[in-house]
Each structure stands twice: as structure tokens, then as C-alpha cells.
Amino acid sequence: MTDVMASRSAAGPEPSATPGEDSKGRRTSPTRGQASRRGQLVAWAFLGPFMAAFLLFVIWPLIHGIYLSLTDQSLTGAGGSFIGLENYSEALSDPVVWTSIGNTVWFTLITTVPLVLFALIMALLVNTGLPGQWLWRLSFFMPFLLASTVISQIWVWIFNPQIGAANEILSAVGLEPIAWLQTAHVDLISIAIATIWWTVGFNFLLYLAALQNIPDLQYEAAAVDGAGRWRQLFSITIPQLGPVTGVILVLQMLASLKLFDQAYQMMEGGSSETSRPIVQYIFEAGFVGYRFGYASAISYIFFVLILIVGIFQMVVLRNRKGNS
Q: What is the DSSP string of 96-111?
């Protein structure tokens, strides 16, 4: 025993193990705890930049906007003192706020149904196998790729009272010309027509993708049972498109409630009481009237209304899904 110990001491101390290796230099697999910590570090390395940007550009503006809505902050730098809920009280009693919200809701109603119905009809026509499908898809989707400024200028020319194509069509069918963008209650409808033409292509693509995912076996089985085209449409196609229709309705209503670009550009920044959306009034209060605090209060009132609409849609869609 003493001879063995003497030989070991003569050979020198045993080499120490390095991380990830045993005493003989062989690599060892990491423990479960080490692997878990390493995975967490990798996950945070990927999430870190996004979380930093999310906090900087979403959470912080949200908190700062709430603070501004409680002050009399001006765009010029004046003010900034805490005034509590005075901005909210003024906004709730401001008739222009409610008129603008009414215009926005009316615009949402007159655009949502046509954008769903027209997109569905366009997708059904292309899905039936029309010749030159690539051309149909391109022509239906191309307007959606254009900028809002381009769309606005196109439709300003179309609605021109003297040389516009819209009045030429009315004259051809024996109707009186209309000052589309200068007539109360007609101006918002004109903006809605331009918006429908501009954005229907996106909904068309969503419906077309959903139609192409419906199995052909269902139509073949229905044809064997004697179901015609209309029966197949209402018993197979439309029920299968229910989830996509729900998504389109939510996206379209949220997009319509945020109306600003085309209304501001087509009306050249001077929307009337019947065409001014709420987002434009927020813009005017903050950047024309220099009242940042008041504009922030209006925006959060509008945010709450959008939140209520979103929750209502979620509840309705969830109940419909549960019943089906």
C-alpha cells in the first residue's frame, strides 16, 4: 500500500478536470441543469432585441401617452402641468368628437360588407378555373400594392365634377352629375368606394387560398349524392370558409376604424363634418391645434371603443365556433 502511494507521489499530482471533461480528458455531456440554463440564455439572446424594441416603441409610448392625456401639454412645449381628467371630460362633451366617431363607424359599416362579399365573389370566379388565372389574380390584387397617395389621386380624378369618369357614367345612364367630394354625406361614400377598390384584393387572396384548401372529395361526394353547384356552394364552400370570414371581418373592421390616409388626401386635408374620421380629428387637435394632451385623451377614448369592438367580435366568434 505504501509502495503504491509512493509511486503515485513520485509520478506527480493527477491532472485536474476542465469544464466539460473528466479527469482523463474525455468529454462529458452537460447535466440537465446546465442544458436548461444554456437554453434559457439562447432564448433570451433571441428575445432580447425584440423585447427591447417592444418596450421602447410600444409600452413606453403607451405609458407616456396616458401621462400626456392627464396634462395640458402643447406641441410648442408650453404647459405640461397635471390637470387630471379635464381633457377626458372635455372630449366626452365635444360634439366634434362624437360626429367624427359616427363618421368612422358609418364608414366601417359601408365598407366591411362589400369588402367581404366582393372578395368572396372574386375568389369564387377565379377558383372555378377561368382562363388566364394569373391575369385575374394580378388584376384583382394589384391595387392593394399601390400607395394610398396614388390611390387618392386616381380617385380624385375619377370623382372630378367636370372631367371625371364617375359623372360620365352617370350621364351615360341618364342621371345628373354629382359633386362627389364636395357634397355632404356623398363625400364619405366616395372615400368608401375608393377604399373598397383599393383593399379588396387582400381579402380576395385570403379567400382564394382557403378555397384551394377545401378537399375535392367533398364536392365529388356531393355530386354523387345529386347536389348541384348552388347546393354545394351553400352546404360545403361557405361553411368551410367560416373561419377565414371571421378573420377577414376582424381585420377589416380594425382597418376601417383607423381611416385617415385616403380621407385626408382625397379631401386635401379639409374634410367636412360628414367625412372627418376620428383619427383625423386627433391629428388636427394635436398638430394643428397644438393640444397634445387633448389629442392624447381623444385617442385613448377611441382606443377603448376599439377594444370593446374587438372583445365583442372575439366573444361572437368563440360562441359561433363552440356551437359549430
A: HHHHHHHHHHHHHHHH
Averaged pLDDT in 10-residue chunks for the chain of 324 residues: 49 50 54 74 87 92 92 83 92 94 94 94 86 83 92 94 91 90 90 94 93 88 86 89 88 89 84 86 91 93 88 77 64
Q: What angle do CA 257, 258, 264 make, to 5 degrees?
A: 120
Terminal C-alpha separation, the chain: 82
DSSP 291: B
Per-residue CA distances from 307 to 154, 183, 250, 255, 287 (Å): 34, 33, 12, 13, 25
Tell me the whole-structure pTM to 2 decimals. Answer: 0.80
Please name which of 124, 312, 316, 318 lies closest in space to residue 203, comparing C-alpha atoms: 124
Write phi, then psi, for 41 (nearest 5 degrees). -65, -40
The candidate with the shortest Cα–Cα distance to 303, out of 264, 257, 252, is 257
What is the dihedral sign for C-alpha 196, 199, 201, 205?
negative
* Type of residue found at 128: T
